[in-house]
């Protein structure tokens, strides 16, 4: 059987997801599971239907036929008072199953609900719920059950609720662990970027991953509940014999006569054993079938037009996005400081620099999606006149996906492996537009055609693991376009692709910008990509913007030593066979930033003035600035 494994699960060796072929086979190709399901269905149906049809009184005694074996009159024999064993089993089954269902409901609701909240919300919620689970697990379960039955003697409902509460931390821990692992997957972050609410994220992207673990744990607990209910009844603590027959008190009665008649224990104990075994086998089979389930999306839409949006003279020169003094910190440490740049409608702006310079943090801060305890500590982010810093989560989520799209650098991890491509697109489309499933499916086809898929229907039916890297990136772009955004943020969208596919993705982005008129922020470290796609560039180093300029000006006459060094090390410009020059040293960590110019330790022009004080930005022209005291010393061709 082929499987798909998420990165977190692969590392832990935990979660496997059957492929679509395995999913379609279902229970009918799992004989033990199918037999177990049939048994439980027959048992439940018999407990509901047969007792009303049985004319024999389960308490009717016939001492002349006491302890009789199976016969035509009594299919399973009689007990020591001559009562029909089959009739008593049928009459006792509904009460037993109701007791088990009560315990399972409490166990599932508490375990899943608290586990998902703890794992997804984290922080103080996680700590509080985890402490509650630890406290409950520390309690001696049998003693608590006996105390409950002492307060509510013979009350099955109270006993089963107590059993469910006492056992729920086991499920809570499993659900919490899987939720934490899934929450950190990139496809969940991508779904949040698409504008899905917390409730939608949990329902669509967290709970499907929990189907397998929950099924296994619930089936195991249901089997344990059968034994617990029978044990309490056996001891006369729950559902005593005076209240009617139950599996437990029937076993107790059989145990009293086992020395003289061993048969009586076979039907009474056998039903408990078979039920426990069936629950276990069914849980295992259902887990295998449902853990990788998919949903079927449906899809007329009249949204995106093939014609480019006409330019508006009143907004062509105005900034769609304006960032001023943006400062971002993590746990008290500043990682991005005083970043400022503009993006005009229909413009492509590249953010370039070495790894660790703050490019991705800057891009994510624009969407309010900083990881961990990261937060914007100062500055302003204005998008189309709306201030995003301090904007409440509900309004910010309304902008994500609809007005601002995001394309991640790892497309495969941005897709949920448990859902088909079409299903994921339909979900995002319906989140942002009031469309029926039929219309959303048509919109999905149009989006896949827009990103140059020749066979959109086939792509929509595929799972992420069936896509190549280039195809996955195209799907990621389609997801980002689902809300018809005005601004697309692409975080190194071609890094993991080969040169041929990279060129296709760049052509696609260029064509989309021309057709749709949207602005693009491209995060990259590749100067070739920058020159191929961007109008202007923002060069970042150690958390600061060190230079801004149009692409042509930047290539012809850099005005910062760092930009000059990056261009010199650009393989696209170096003569064939020549060794590439490298910038000495490395990018300092935020905690080791120099007091003055951050680039001073690596700069050949650095002076004491550069090291002594922070360097301000010098504006050279409308679209050009530099953070350097000695920019005029750079040799300009």
Your description of this structure?
This protein is 49% helix and 13% strand. It has 637 residues and is of the alpha/beta class. The strands form three sheets. The chain has an eight-stranded mixed β-sheet with strand order 8-9-10-5-11-12-14-13, sandwiched between helices. Strands 4-3-6-7 form a four-stranded antiparallel β-sheet, with helices on one face. Mean pLDDT is 81; it is low at 1-25 and 292-317.
Average pLDDT: 81
Helix content: 40-55%
- Give the DSSP E fraction (strand runs of 2 or more residues): 5-15%
Runs in which pLDDT lies below 50 for 5 or more consecutive residues are 1-25, 292-317
Determine the structural class based on helices, strands and strand pairing: alpha/beta
Number of strands: 14
Strand order of the largest sheet: 8-9-10-5-11-12-14-13
The number of helical runs is: 22
Envelope shape: elongated
How far is it from the N-terminal to the C-terminal residue, by CA? Answer: 62 Å
Main sheet attributes: strand count, strand direction, barrel closure: 8 strands, mixed
What is the radius of gyration?
Answer: 33 Å
């Amino acid at each position: 059987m082929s499987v798909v494994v998420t990165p977190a699960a692969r590392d832990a060796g935990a979660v496997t997801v059957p492929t679509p072929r395995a999913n379609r086979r279902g229970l009918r190709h799992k004989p033990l599971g199918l037999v177990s399901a049939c048994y439980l269905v027959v048992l439940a149906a018999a407990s509901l239907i047969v007792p009303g049809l049985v004319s024999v009184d389960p308490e009717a005694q016939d001492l002349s036929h006491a302890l009789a074996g199976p016969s035509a009159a009594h299919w399973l024999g009689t007990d020591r008072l001559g009562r029909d064993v089959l009739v008593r089993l049928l009459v006792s089954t509904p009460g037993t199953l109701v007791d088990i269902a009560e315990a399972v409901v409490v166990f599932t609701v508490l375990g899943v609900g608290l586990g998902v909240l703890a794992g997804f919300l984290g922080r103080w919620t996680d700590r509080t719920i985890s402490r509650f689970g630890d406290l409950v697990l520390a309690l001696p379960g049998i003693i608590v059950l006996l105390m409950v039955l002492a307060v509510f003697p013979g009350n099955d409902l109270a006993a089963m609720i107590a059993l469910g509460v006492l056992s729920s931390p086991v499920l809570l821990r499993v659900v919490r662990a899987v939720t934490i692992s899934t929450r950190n997957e990139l496809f969940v972050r991508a779904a949040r970027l698409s504008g899905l609410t917390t409730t939608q994220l949990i329902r669509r992207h967290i709970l499907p991953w929990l189907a397998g673990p929950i099924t296994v744990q619930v089936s195991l607990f249901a089997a344990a509940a059968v034994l617990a209910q029978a044990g309490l009844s056996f001891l006369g603590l729950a559902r005593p014999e005076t209240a009617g027959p139950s599996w437990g008190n029937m076993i107790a009665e059989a145990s009293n006569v086992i020395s003289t008649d061993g048969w009586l224990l076979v039907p009474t104990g056998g039903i408990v054993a078979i039920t426990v075994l069936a629950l276990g086998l069914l849980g295992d089979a259902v887990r295998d079938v449902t853990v990788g389930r998919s949903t079927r999306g449906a899809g007329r839409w009249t949204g995106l037009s093939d014609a480019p949006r006409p330019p508006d003279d009143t907004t062509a020169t105005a900034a769609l996005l304006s960032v001023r003094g943006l400062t971002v910190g993590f746990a008290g440490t500043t990682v991005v400081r005083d970043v400022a740049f503009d993006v005009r409608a229909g413009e492509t702006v590249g953010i370039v620099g070495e790894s660790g310079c703050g490019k991705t943090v800057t891009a994510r801060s624009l969407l309010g999606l900083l990881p961990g305890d990261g937060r914007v500590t100062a500055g302003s982010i204005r998008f189309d006149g709306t201030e995003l810093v301090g904007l409440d989560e509900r309004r910010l989520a309304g902008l994500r996906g609809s007005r601002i799209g995001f394309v991640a650098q790892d497309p495969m991890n941005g897709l949920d492996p448990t859902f088909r491509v079409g299903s994921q697109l339909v979900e995002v489309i319906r989140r942002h537009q009031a469309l029926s499933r039929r219309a959303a499916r048509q919109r999905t086809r149009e989006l896949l055609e827009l990103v140059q898929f020749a066979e959109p229907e086939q792509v929509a039916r595929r799972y992420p693991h069936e896509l190549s890297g280039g195809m996955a990136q195209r799907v990621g772009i389609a997801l980002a376009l689902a809300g018809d955004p005005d601004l697309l943020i692409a975080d190194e969208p071609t890094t993991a692709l080969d040169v041929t596919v990279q060129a296709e993705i760049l052509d696609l982005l260029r064509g989309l910008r021309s057709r749709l008129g949207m602005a693009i922020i491209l995060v990259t470290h590749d100067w070739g990509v920058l020159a191929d796609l961007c109008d202007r560039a923002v060069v970042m180093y150690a958390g600061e913007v060190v230079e801004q300029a149009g692409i042509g000006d930047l290539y012809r006459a850099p005005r910062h030593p760092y930009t000059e060094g990056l261009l010199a090390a650009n393989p696209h410009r170096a003569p064939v066979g020549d060794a590439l020059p490298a910038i000495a040293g490395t990018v300092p960590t935020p905690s080791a930033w120099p007091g003055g110019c951050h680039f001073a330790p690596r700069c050949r022009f650095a002076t004491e003035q550069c090291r002594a004080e922070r360097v301000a930005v010098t504006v050279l022209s409308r679209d050009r600035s530099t953070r350097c005291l000695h920019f005029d010393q750079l040799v300009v061709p």
